[in-house]
# Entry
Amino acid sequence: MKLRGGKTVLLAAGAALLLLWLFCLPRRLFRDACYSTVVESAEGDLLGARIAADGQWRFPPCDMVPERFAAALVQFEDRHFYHHPGVNPVSIVRAAADNIRNRRVVSGGSTITMQVIRLSRRKPRNLIQKAVEAFMATRLELRFSKRKILALYASHAPFGGNVVGLEAASWRYFGRPPSELSWGEAATLAVLPNAPASVHMSRGREELLEKRNRLLRRLMEHGDITEETYEASCEEPLPGAPMPLPSLASHFVSRCPAGKRTRSTISFPVQRSVEAVVDRRSDDLAREGIADMAAIVLDNASGEVLAYVGNSSAYRTRPGSQVDIASSPRSTGSILKPFLYAASLQDGTILPRTLLPDIPVNLSGFAPQNFDRNFYGAVPADEALSRSLNVPMVFLLRQYGIAKFHAILKSAGLTTLTEAPDHYGLSLILGGAEARLDEVAAAYSAFAVGRDTPFTDAVARWYTFEALGEVNRPDQLDWRLLSSVRKAAWKTGTSYGFRDAWAVGMTPEYTIAVWAGNAGGQGMPGLTGARAAGPVMFEILNLLPSSGVWFEEPSEGGKWADVCPESGYLAGADCPREQMLIPEAGLDSDPCRYHPKGEFVLPPAMEWYYRPFHPEYASAKKGASEIRMQFIYPQEGAVLKLPRQLSGEVEGVVFRVAHHDSDAVLWWHLDNEYVGETRFRHEMRLSPVTGEHVLTVVDADGNTSFVRFTVVRPD
Ligand SMILES: [Zn+2]
# Structure
């Protein structure tokens, strides 16, 4: 009975011990450890890293242990590692004997498995803890493979100073990944965790060198390395001061999840060469007071980021360089114009070459000007886009609708349009809104392939590519600097006050977006999209691998229609006509109204500005138009804010009228009061009082034209 009871107790104790053993390991061994932020390229190369929250260089665990380090470590720490069950009784007995003989702890006798447990628990080193470690180590052997246990050790072993883990040590001491370590370097790192401080102390370094060379000899004796390798390895110097880690795409790295390893889509070679281009170009522009530059390269097929330069020269300590411009909202200049052209095409607001007005206009105080301050009278929409004319685009936005355009930009992924459409008004198309370079790049890239974009009409997109492929620009791009450039559908943007220079280029394969300016927002005279950002965009394009294909004309989706070649509208009854592929919605667009009697005649205000640039536009057409004369300035409903001169007097406004007959005489009336007559050149300077007015002109035949406007005089 007693004996049986003893047996039961023993059995129960055994079962309890078994249960204790089974459940002695936490679910995650290193659950308290915090790690460095590590970001790798698509190829697996290290782009950059950030120190862990506890100030340690401790890379997130990695299951790969390179052969050389594994062989050196096992040879140095635990020769029977592959054969014991987590504890090695022989070495424990030997260590105990050593310690008794020396009356202090000189030998650990710990296996690599026991050391993994010790590293994860961080308890004091004494015999009781060692027994616990041994107990848990046998359990760990059941859970993990030998490879995995080696990897856990390599990821968490101390390597001196604030360097933890093989990967951080390999970069900090030798400037390369663990897979590229020499035998001498692998042996150094295998020895180091045993006395991690030794690498930084001159006395310790001698010992370290001796230990390393002893280990190398053992590796030779074991047959891991040849005698030549052994001798060459012994000649290798110990590492010096810790090296800086690679620092590519540093702003991108800062955006990656902290404390995690991220495998990005960034291409290491593309990133490196784009950074080189940006730094060199930025150095040139810095002399003109343009300090900052950002660039992004996207692969259109996948939408993936191939290169991300948040700012130039992040390695330099200059104010602003830490600002990631690529994700900062900046004024858009003309960079959104292609989206308006495509949107207007795909909903039938215009056809590809519809004439848009390019005449002075004043819309509730908003009086847009072209970059060159000219007015061209009337310009085909595609040409207005490729020449980046402001005035026709404002007319187009008014016709398309501000709210609709605002909505389509948001659905294209621009998150920075935080205000209501009314807040931006018509300036939305001229840089009145802000956008982020990364989002603009993504919107263009989606546009290029027609996926994940509100611009679904292939014909509309194709005409946009064609317009943007024209290289004949009014801007000052020096093409001699860019011999043999690849063709791209590209757009520049220059914000008000020369504060932001943009250039975005698309090919079927890539989208490249470049921004130049000052993070602080200072404007500079040379800061235009074509001059500061365009050449950088083309230089980047030229270094990308490419098959050189161009966008294909869509074979389906559009409609062939009779279009008036002079106005770009659907051909009317009296128009010349030619067949043109147009988006399907264009079939419902307006017919041409510029051929009233079979002859091409523009309304007077458009004609006034159009004629000097179009000598072929015959003046013999007088009388053809039903409109005899037209106010050029101001527009109906304009709000005129009269400026005060330096002398303190209030300046007047020059009112203008265009008349079909070059020798017509006009009589002017302000609010029914006669104010004067004009001949040949119909301009009249007036200075009306604050309030609403009507200005009327009458010609000799009794034709009249009038305009209503509001004047605001300074207080
Ligand atoms: Zn026509």
